[in-house]
Design brief:
The chain is mainly β and 252 residues long. The protein has one helix at residues 213-219; strands spanning 2-12, 15-26, 29-38, 43-49, 56-58, 61-65, 73-78, 85-90, 93-107, 116-124, 133-143, 147-155, 159-164, 167-169, 171-175, 178-181, 184-198, 222-234, 237-250. The chain has 2 domains: 1-126; 127-252, AttH-like fold (Beta Barrel), CATH 2.40.370. The chain contains 1 helix and 19 strands. A hairpin with a 3-residue loop joins β12 (147-155) and β13 (159-164). The radius of gyration is 18 Å and the shape is globular.
Length: 252
């Protein structure tokens, strides 16, 4: 199997939108997925036999394809810089993470000139429950001048990783209102819930899920995703303010 999954978000004042596109190759079969979430709690999910058109990075701009029959582009994220990072590798199994747009201006679809967002691409060639995760925390902050993104795994293969403006930093602690790294800290306020449901009841509900016990347990993971305002401190001094999208998935 081989999965290529794209995630993007945009924040424009009180407007928050999250987009997903993915293709899953299982032997000769190709299955596409498209989904989305808004701050108003509206969500969509759709499986597309034969796959979907995935975003592309052209000259530092990620173009997100429209899912309408007439095609075209839905939005564009500026400031793309590929940064592919292997998160896990074992016996030919590989999970790579590429946060292409850490903090870019977003255009299109009625957005204001100040709209900002984030884009990442994830690829893996194994079943995700083989990682043995017990808890996953992920998030990203976009300010006027700086960006911060973090990943924390708890379980069979624990890991902590943070990128401040694309540069690796030690991730010390992730808490509901604070993310602490070497040289920087992010304080989160006015947190609002975007999603709180098991993965099998959320965007993946449209899939025909595997029946194996390990897979069933994996898809029972409880996902909570938030939007919040963020203030970034560098060396103890306030340096930037902006918005954050972050999540936690817990497997019992």
């Amino acid at each position: 199997m081989f999965l290529e999954k794209w995630y993007a978000d945009v924040c424009d004042g009180e407007r928050v939108e999250i987009l997903y596109l993915a293709n899953l190759k299982l032997g000769p079969a190709l299955i596409g997925y498209e989904g989305g979430i808004t701050l108003a709690g509206q969500g969509s999910a759709k499986v597309v036999p034969g796959g979907v058109h995935l975003p592309r990075d052209v000259d530092g701009v990620v173009a997100w394809p429209s899912t309408r029959p007439e095609g075209g582009e839905r939005m564009r994220w500026a400031g793309a810089r590929p940064l592919e990072i292997p998160l896990w590798r074992e016996d030919g199994r590989l999970l790579t993470w590429n946060p292409l747009v850490l903090n870019g201006l977003v255009s299109g679809n009625g957005l204001s000139p100040g709209a900002r967002g984030y884009v990442e691409r994830l690829t893996l060639n194994f079943r995700p429950w083989q990682l043995g995760l017990q808890r996953l925390r992920w998030g990203r902050f976009c300010g006027d001048r700086h960006s911060l993104v973090w990943i924390e795994w708890e379980g069979r293969h624990p890991m902590r990783l943070a990128l401040l403006d694309g540069q690796k930093r030690e991730l010390r602690e992730v808490a509901p209102e604070n993310v602490d790294c070497t040289e920087c800290a992010l304080h989160l306020t006015r947190r609002r819930t975007l999603v709180q449901e098991s993965m099998s009841e959320g965007g993946l509900r449209v899939l025909s899920l595997p029946r194996r016990l390990a897979a069933l347990q994996f898809f029972r993971g409880l996902e909570t995703k938030w939007f919040a305002l963020g203030e970034l401190f560098l060396e103890g001094e306030a340096a930037d303010s902006g918005h954050a999208v972050f999540e936690e998935v817990v497997w019992s």
